[in-house]
Amino acid sequence: VTQCDASSSSSTTSPNNHKPKNSGDHRRKTTIRQLQQFSTKGQSLEDVYEVDWNTALGVGAFGAVYRALHTTTQQPVALKEISKRFTDNTAFQREMNALLHIRKAGGHPNICTWHEHFDEPDKEGGDSSTSGHYYVILDLIQGGEMFDHLVANGAFSEMDASRMLREVASALAFLHGMGIVHGDLKPENIMLSHDNPSSAVVKLVDFGSAQTTDGPPWETSGWTTAYCPPEVLDDRRRKSYMEPCMDMWAVGVILYIMLTGVHPYDLTGRATDEDIEKAILSKKPIPLRDSPITAHLSDSVLDLIAKLMDPNPRTRLTAHEMLEDSWIKGDTASKDKMAFSDKKLSSYKKFMSQLGAKVFADIVKWSDDDETGQDHNDENGNHGRSASRGGHTSLIERSFQSFDSQRKGYISPRDLQNLHQDDSNKNENDDDDNDDSATGGSSVDGKSNAHGTNDDTHKIKEDGRDELETPPLSLTGFSNLLSDSMKNRYFPKGHTIYRQGDQGDSMYFINSGVIQVTTQDGSKTTRGPGNYFGEGALLQKDQRRSASITCKTPVHAMEISREDFDKYLAASQSSELLLSLKEKDKIRKKNRARAALRLQKNLEERDYSNGEALFLYGEEEDQLYLVEYGKVDVMIDGKRVFSANPGNLCGEFSVLTGKPRNSTGICVTEDGCIAQVMKGKHFRKLVQSSPYIQDSINELSHRRDFKKAVVRRLQKEFPYENPREAFDAVRNGRPNQPKKNKNATTKSVDRLDVDTIGSLMRELNPSYTDEEIREIVAILDLSNDGTVTFEEFKKVFIANIRTSNAM
Q1: I want to staple 557 with a disulfide (CB 3.0 to 4.6 A). Which of 138, 508, 583, 727 is the partner?
Q2: Which residues, listed in sequence order, are joined to residue 211 by a DSSP beta bridge?
Q3: Non-local CB neighbours of 760 within 8 Å, separated by 6+ positions
Q4: In this structure, is residue 284 part of a structural domain?
């Protein structure tokens, strides 16, 4: 177990030996200021974590590390206790500076995550900047160092090494793109998440030698000779600052060691640092080709090592170039030492369709549940979890763990079969419209015989292996199986992935990094790790991109083609996945429309006291309201329909229809509300140049009118916590009235048609036309079959409570 430690005991040069004059105090003050600024406020360490102070997991250069448990999520973490007396230590300053940069940039799943930290003074008093401790919460990494695995187990297989080095390269591309050089890469500073290398994810640790290239230049220091390139070891060539090419040389050395078990400049393991330094500076070729040490390696990996250990730093391979290498992608890596061959791996091919569909659906669901990386206010004014707090688990690793629920470190055929059966049973029980729910059969490939079993099913032993000895599927194998349909894409900082109006043929899941979403009318938002983008073009008939996507940081995304997108939707056992994607797309477009309205210059700011009305039922007024502060309850017949929080709008009905108000808006915040008022003529001028804004606001208004009609029929607030009550009120008529068809089963009538919705809406306003009713049905009908099912109803009004309350 380890943490992001700043100890550099094997370094040949002490960081403090090269401290520039007159800069130490400035660095110290900067470090203290940043640690104070970004510390967790309003809660103490004891409020959030249970810490096992009795047993230290380890002791680093600046303090001990303990196991802790988040009291709410029950997530185990590593807690590092650091005395503030180390704030004048250069290595401490380097590490804190680098980790804070990484955290602010969104984090990366292959870099030890700094979750949060607490700045707590000494209980006995004193200067708060020098007395007391910092308590840093980090990933708990339990697989040990790569170095220990090399010592215990020898060389890695090419396929495992390829996947691990792809993760290292992704982390370095992220760091280098953000202006950070690690400066001391070596097997000891690459941790594994699991004791089985084939199922372990790598984590870079120890940033005590790191440098941020966008800040004041810090001298090269704290390196480990055996992993240093010649330009750093040569006093005549050494620069006063580190460059990314230094890390890439170290990666070449690490790769050589991973595959051969020996250091390229110390084949016997007995050389001193001085011997290794002389060998590196001599530019003597390492044993690479025509050598018994590397005879078992593929030509492609030998080429890669040569490019990484190029003596010329200007032509040395970069991290981004490394990610495009065929060996790193796994295309040409030898499988000689893998636990299974291509032939054995093919035994899992029969699971591919369901496996890919399950991973796709899970990632969509996780994004909806977590709102990961949404660095903006949601429709109810809640600030979403910042991207800087995410990124500690890759999407592939999280997907792998969802199958390997017992954390065995591998997936067996039983894991896949059981999960599929669980999903099938769940869908049969939950989906009232599933005509096959009585068959009782389920299978991995969707084909059941009369007895409810699959012809290809093997008998499974207790250890998870089947009688035909199908091998367990490691993380490496799992990743390779998915790679054909979920392609890794790496984009540099500042890169535009696509532009608004482009033809769209794919969508993307963000594995690491942060993107900016921009529309031509000026609205902007960000999305981070775990989120997705580009789905709109795959759902819309015109197949056009509705926004431009630019990388705010280096981004690693998984690309899903239109063909695979359609395949995953078809393989889904229910309509839930499609409904989720469609509703998310609608919500995002409404958010963009709101953002565009807020950018307009012809807004008038007004203050409202608690209990004061912004608008009243029956008024003939041509303006809408954008809430800046406080909460506005929109009501009908004295009952709340929804609340408009900061960032939301209300009063749009009259602007869109030219009709009198059909609801009342009241400020319900004790210290008052602030709203920006937009006149109808300015709104109509805006939508002439941006028709999608009118479409989005019009859809928002129709959904709200539907809820107003439900509230009027129920004569109570809209029941967000009980969607069945609201749905039945629409389907069955007014409360206490007899059902339209007493003999009809719930299953046969569990949907709303045009007549049913028309009857409801005309109770709100008898002047509703047939065309307007059909438009409302189309807005609620996510599956485009002319009716609204209960599942669609829940998705539109209930599934995301934070957004549905405002829609």
Answers
A1: 508
A2: 181
A3: 706, 709, 710, 713, 730
A4: yes
d(CA 547, CA 328): 32
Same-domain pairing of 691 and 761: yes
The parent domain of residue 312 ranges over 146-323
Q: From CA 592, how far away is CA 693, in angstroms rounded?
A: 8
User: Given strand 613-615, what is the order of strands in its sheet?
Assistant: 613-615, 664-667, 632-636, 639-644
Range list of H helices, 56-207: 90-104, 146-153, 158-177
Residue 721 and residue 663 in one domain: yes
Residues 75 and 201 in one domain: no
Per the CB < 8 A criterion, the answer to whether 248 and 254 are in contact is no
Domain boundary among 284, 307, 323: 323
CA dihedral 34, 37, 42, 46 (to 10 degrees): 0
Kindly report the CATH number assigned to the domain that includes residue 160: 1.10.510.10
Sign of CA dihedral 145, 147, 148, 149: positive
Catalytic choice (5, 184, 378, 705): 184
Extract the tokens encoding 231. Answer: 């330009």
Question: Is the same domain home to 155 and 293?
Answer: yes
Active site residue 184: yes
Do 569 and 658 fall into the same domain?
A: no
In the annotated binding site for ATP, the residues are 80
Q: Sorting pLDDT into bands at 50, 70 and 90, what band is 542?
A: confident
3-class DSSP state of 298: coil
User: How do residues 709-724 score in pLDDT, each as one tens digit?
Assistant: 999 999 999 998 899 9
Q: Which residue blocks in 309-386 are alpha helix, DSSP H?
A: 319-323, 342-345, 352-370
Q: Give, in order, the Cα–Cα distances in Å from 374 to each of 130, 270, 277, 384, 534.
A: 36, 52, 48, 5, 15
* Residue that is last in its domain, among 138, 162, 185: 138
Task: Note the pTM of the prediction, 2 decimals.
Answer: 0.80
Residue pointed to by tokens 């969707």: 446
Query: What is the distance of C-alpha 711 from the center of its chain?
Result: 37
Most confident of 385-394, 443-452, 582-591, 783-792: 783-792
Q: What is the CATH number of the domain that holds 642?
A: 2.60.120.10
Counting the structural domains of the chain, the total is 4
Query: Read out DSSP for 82-108?
Result: EEGGGGG-HHHHHHHHHHHHHHHTT--
Listed in sequence order, the residues at least 6 apart from 52 whose beta carbon sits closer than 8 Å to its beta carbon are 66, 67, 68
Question: Which structure tokens are listed for 703?
Answer: 């959904």
Q: Which residues lie below 8 Å from residue 381, measured CB to CB, with a gap of 6+? A: 627, 631, 645, 646, 647, 648
- Same domain as 791, residue 649: yes
